[in-house]
């Protein structure tokens, strides 16, 4: 539980720092924080092996990246556009590639990417699990259903995680998503589970069952995690009523887990995370800008 708390805290502090830096005019481009959704990244990715398994993520990818790699220095430098960034400062917040970790900000594009990777990995025969994270709004992309069909028909070792935060930018899911999300995958003969919690321990348990099922059967699995985005879609673009945002605070995964920890452990972990992110930011600030390196 302490390690879960540490990872979630690191992700939270990292993203709070990005929002602060944007508001100070120190960053350009955009960013999407997973503030409120950290339990998903940490709970699911505690079951993958970074040397073997593959993770494909979307525009809201920092939590997944940090849970998979622990590399806050590379990520902050990447968002800052520095040569020391994960992709030499050219990918930015949404387009990361390191080892077996890939992201792309084009909604739905990662579903075919992950399906193809799962097929390639099955052919390679090393037993790799491919995990892909999709948002509820991305269920509006037709390619997602072609992928569910192929993954089931061809028995691909693919774990599809839907992080259902009930919004796509400003559009609530009631206006965009009909019927049952889980039933969409069930219609393709894919095993599913749905969870309504921000407790990382519960996410960890459900994701463990899902990952074991894929590894054992070689078949896809569809895990729906009903969750809450506590911060704006990107930056300063939250049109929700303040009362709605206030009500989300009780679901804060740090609060949910933190209540079960000793106060002294919490304080120590929070201090260590603050220090780690501050050091990463400082190192990023000292590194040369990618644009300058490209121009040379
Ligand atoms: C093809 C495409 N269309 C539109 C966008 C702009 N866009 C970025 S995020 C987003 C909403 C995604 O909603 P959801 O899948 O629920 O993920 P969430 O942002 O809630 O994590 C949209 C429309 C995009 N990135 N790609
Ligand atoms: Mg959403």
Supply the key terms:
9 strands, 13% strand, two-stranded antiparallel sheet, Rossmann fold, 296 residues, binds magnesium ion, binds thiamine diphosphate, seven-stranded mixed sheet, alpha/beta
Gap between N and C termini, in Å? 48 Å
The total count of strands amounts to 9
- Fraction in helix: 40-55%
Class of secondary structure makeup: alpha/beta
Shape: globular
Query: What is the overall number of helices?
Result: 12
**How many structural units, i.e. domains?**
1
Portion in beta strands: 5-15%
Identify the bound ligands: thiamine diphosphate, magnesium ion
Spatial sequence of strands, sheet with the most strands: 2-3-1-4-5-9-8
Question: Could you characterize what this model shows?
Answer:
This protein is 47% helix and 13% strand. By secondary structure, it is an alpha/beta fold. The chain has one domain: Rossmann fold (3-Layer(aba) Sandwich), CATH 3.40.50. The strands form two sheets. The protein has a seven-stranded mixed beta sheet, with helices on both faces. Strands 6-7 form a two-stranded antiparallel ribbon. A hairpin with a 2-residue loop joins β6 (167-168) and β7 (171-172). The radius of gyration is 19 Å and the shape is globular. The mean pLDDT is 96. Bound molecules: thiamine diphosphate and magnesium ion. Magnesium ion is lined by residues 135-137, 165, 167-168.
């Amino acid at each position: 539980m302490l390690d879960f708390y540490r990872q979630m805290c690191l992700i939270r502090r990292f993203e709070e720092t990005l929002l602060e830096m944007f508001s100070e005019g120190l960053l350009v481009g955009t960013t999407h924080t997973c503030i409120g959704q950290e339990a998903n990244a940490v709970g699911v990715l505690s079951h993958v092996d970074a040397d073997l398994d593959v993770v494909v993520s979307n525009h809201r990818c920092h939590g997944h990246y940090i849970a998979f790699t622990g590399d806050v220095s590379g990520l902050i430098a990447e968002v800052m556009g520095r040569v020391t960034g994960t992709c030499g400062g050219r990918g930015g917040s949404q387009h990361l590639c390191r080892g077996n970790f890939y992201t792309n900000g084009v909604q739905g594009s990662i579903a075919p990417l992950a399906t193809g990777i799962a097929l390639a990995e099955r052919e390679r025969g090393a037993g790799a699990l491919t995990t892909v994270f999709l948002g509820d709004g991305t269920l509006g992309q037709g390619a997602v259903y072609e992928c569910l069909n192929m993954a089931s028909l061809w028995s691909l070792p693919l774990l599809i995680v839907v992080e259902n935060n009930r919004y796509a930018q400003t559009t609530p899911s009631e206006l965009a998503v009909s019927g049952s999300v889980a039933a969409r995958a069930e219609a393709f003969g894919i095993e599913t589970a749905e969870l309504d919690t921000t407790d990382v321990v519960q996410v960890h348990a459900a994701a463990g069952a899902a990952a074991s099922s894929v590894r054992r059967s070689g078949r896809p699995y569809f895990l729906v995690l009903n969750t809450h985005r506590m911060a704006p879609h990107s930056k300063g673009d939250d049109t929700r009523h303040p009362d709605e945002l206030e009500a989300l605070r009780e679901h804060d995964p740090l609060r949910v887990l933190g209540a079960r920890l000793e106060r002294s452990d919490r304080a120590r972990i929070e201090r260590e995370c603050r220090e780690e992110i501050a050091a990463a930011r400082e190192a990023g600030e000292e590194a040369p800008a990618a644009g300058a390196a490209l121009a040379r």
